[in-house]
Sequence to fold (413 residues):
Amino acid sequence: MDEHGESNQKILLGITGGIAAYKSAELVRRLQNQSCTVKVVMTAAAEKFIGALTFQALTGEPVYHDMYQSSGDAMEHIELARWADKIIIAPASANFIAKLTHGLADDLLSTLCLAAEVPIYVAPAMNQAMWKNPATQNNISILQQRGIHFLGPDQGQQACGETGPGRLLDPQEIAAQLLTSQQSTQLTTGQRLAGKTVLITAGPTKEAIDPVRFISNHSSGKMAYALAQQALQAGANVKLISGPTSLTPPAKAELHAVESALQMHSAVMQNIQDTDIFIACAAVADYRPATVAANKIKKQADHLSIEMLRNPDILTEVCALKPKPLCIGFAAETENLLENAQKKLNAKNADLIIANAVGKNKEGVSLGFNAENNHAYIISKDHCIDLGSHSKNQLAHQLINHIAEVYEKKHTS
Ligand code: C5P
Fold:
């Protein structure tokens, strides 16, 4: 058994056309390091970016690419689909995602996906505008409804020179999510949160000082958006009450865009009534300027004081409702993490607090605000679970599983 409690999985890796295809070689290695057997199927476009020989050498197996290959086995697509425990398409191009959506079967990879009865995972990689295009987003939403799992994409600098969502998720991360997805398979097939409404606050708030200035913080909204995505995959109706971020919300989430803490507070209170699970992930400003100047404040004295007023604590208010939804808060701390998180759990009367360190871990990887990774602990009245340091997507997956479990226990006891 490996660290994820699984071993010897048979993984069929489909590679489609895109510059990120070179990263699939590392993915093969990562999967093999976890005792997986990997077989590779490449599309014709993939072979324009990286040679089949690389994968043949890495896997010690022939690379499959042709429906009518010389093996003489006319049923190759069925055989391959039956052989695999899981299928992962990495990178998955926008074109391949569209083919998968419509059930096209015009090459070996698309045909075997149509014939597959095992879980299919898709790690997209494409230009940010192609990713954001409603055609792609609609396709993704249809595939997610069918139970196909999406891993990534990441944000950042792209091969084309643009910046945005559409980078292939790090191969190490793809491997980790793929291999820990035993539960996620149950989630999609079992739809653990089906029929439940999950309300999530996200991102920073902006507190206006005058018409051109505001007070805010470095929250990116990544953790909350990842939680929204995972809750959707678990079958929940998701309401996302989001401060300003640069992220594309999951297509199926009901988005309420807000700016200030007061706006976030009233959007939450208006939507809380039918909420089963409330996740307060936003970095809400604790204070706001007492007055917002009607005109831009001019430079005058050497010192300027701005009187600040306390904002309502949204989580505390929701936790005080009777009946109250299952309430989960976040504690991002730079010091005394667990002690402060425990205090928050008690002070706010939350069911769970997810504690995460802000700063850098021992390896120098940035954690917390506006970072790709988090080191998280789940704290409740009777336990403290160290989830370790992972990408926000992977943590979201673990957190939604845990939250679903706590919800189920609470409602069956
Ligand atoms: O009290 P503190 O801000 O450290 O607590 C953090 C938790 O409380 C987070 O879950 C955050 O979303 C929530 N919070 C809130 N409303 C506020 C401040 C924090 O919901 N005004």
Remarks:
- The chain has two domains: 10-190, 197-293+302-410.
- Residues 201, 261, 280-282, 284, 286, 311, 313-315, 329-331, 344 surround cytidine-5'-monophosphate (CB under 6 Å).
- Residues 1-6, 183-190 have pLDDT under 50 and may be disordered.
